[in-house]
Amino acid sequence: MIRILIAEDSNVVALLLKAIFSKEPDMEVVGHACNGREAVEMTRALKPSLVTMDIRMPVLDGFEATREIMSGTVTPIVVISSSVDDEELRTTFRAIEEGALAVIEKPRGVGHPDFEAIRSELVNTVRAMAEVKLVRRLPRRPPVQPDAVPVAPDAQEQHRFELVALGCSTGGPQALHALLAGLPAGFPLPIAIVQHISPGFVGGMVTWLSDQCPLIVKLAEDDEPLRAGTVYLAPDGYHLLIKRAGRTLRALLDGGTAVNLFRPSATPFLQSVARICGTKAIAGVLSGMGADGACGLLEVRRAGGHTFVQDPDSCVVAGMPNSAIAMNAVDKIVGLESLALHLQRLTRENA
Fold first, then answer.
1. So what's the pLDDT on residue 84?
2. What value does the mean pLDDT take over residues 221-246?
3. Residue 98 to residue 70: CA distance in whole angstroms
4. Could you say which of 190, 199, 256, 306 has the lowest number of CB atoms within 10 Å?
5. What span, in angstroms and rounded, lies between the C-alpha atoms of 35 and 41?
6. Please, are residues 191 and 230 in contact by the beta-carbon 8 Å criterion?
7. What is the per-residue pLDDT across 145-198, written as a single tens digit (0 to 9) for each?
């Protein structure tokens, strides 16, 4: 049985969450904390399987409560947040940085047209995150930044590789944070990313990653050229694909049918990378649920590009890397702390 503590200062939202979880045969709500301090104390006393954490709460906000829980009574935390407030989005990703596992949009009532989709995502995420094995977090040290290397206008021409393409889902924000924070400002290739995340949150993720790494981080725009030292995330509701115009790689946004239930999906993204970049592609699949991206990664490998996955043992959820490994789509398995070094070695060795 998954024992859930709800941390939420709105009684209306708390009752809605309780109603959602109570309908699941493997879930029970063991308590309701009305502020962050209560969330910390009730986690210690009740030892729930998982905490759902609001961000904007009195006494302690969700970020501070997450930090205290993860340094004491270590418990899986899923942030349930509004996606419309910029400051709340920023705090949400600070909670992810402190150890929260996932972020889900706050449900808006049974009559809302998106209610069933959000409800389904919520219960599936809670079910998966309750199984994650955690350890107490040590005080974080700021990442050591590599020396910046100026990027010449034709830097990509000097390398065998021309693009880094990454796909990830649950646990992806944490993996991307570790990877991007370890790269220098002069990283010689563009980095394009498909991250599964609840609608409305990818913009906040861009802001958070921008604050955490020396690279330029932005949402991909249709037909824009992909430039070295810049990170491009797929926007809500569009597949991110790669195309070529002359010698220049460009982003292509496609609002077509969802693939593997996702839009954006890592599968068509990596398939386009295989088709356009071939041997000049570096492609990776990081932490995530399910199997999205595995088929695309296999196509990159068959096209002669370099493929890697995050070591499943270092993933929040290892479904995506394990699926790629099972399909023999992987050249290299890389630990979380070595992801940035792996990319730097590839670009350095092939300069």
1. 63
2. 98
3. 7
4. 256
5. 10
6. yes
7. 444 344 444 444 445 899 999 999 999 999 999 999 999 999 999 999 999 998
What is the identity of the amino acid at 298? L
Instruction: Tell me the catalytic residues.
Output: 169, 196, 292
- Which helix (H) or strand (E) segment is 202 a member of? helix 202-212
Residues 106 and 168 grouped into a single domain:
no
Total domain count, the chain: 2
Domain that holds residue 176: 155-349
Task: Provide the residue type at 257 as one letter.
Answer: T
One domain, residues 100 and 206: no
Residue 235, preceding bond cis, omega within 30 degrees?
Answer: no
Give the list of residues 6+ apart from residue 158 with CB closer than 8 angstroms, or none: 152, 188, 351
37: CATH = 3.40.50.2300
Clarify whether residues 14 and 113 are in a common domain. Answer: yes
Burial-class residue 209 by CB neighbours within 10 Å (0-12, 13-18, 19+). Answer: buried
- What pLDDT score was predicted for residue 153? 41
Are 95 and 159 within one domain? no
- Residue 142 CB partners (closer than 8 Å, separation 6+): none
Kind plus residue range of the DSSP H or E element containing 52: strand 50-53
Distance CA 174, CA 101 (A): 8
294/292 Cα distance (integer angstroms): 6
The span from the CA of 130 to the CA of 217, in Å, is: 31
CA-CA distance, 64 to 71, in Å (whole number)?
11
How sure is the predictor about 219, in pLDDT bands with cuts at 50, 70 and 90? very high
For helices 115-129 and 11-22, the axis angle rounded to 10 degrees is: 70
Residue 200: alpha-carbon gap to chain centroid: 14
Report d(CA 343, CA 190) in Å as an integer: 12
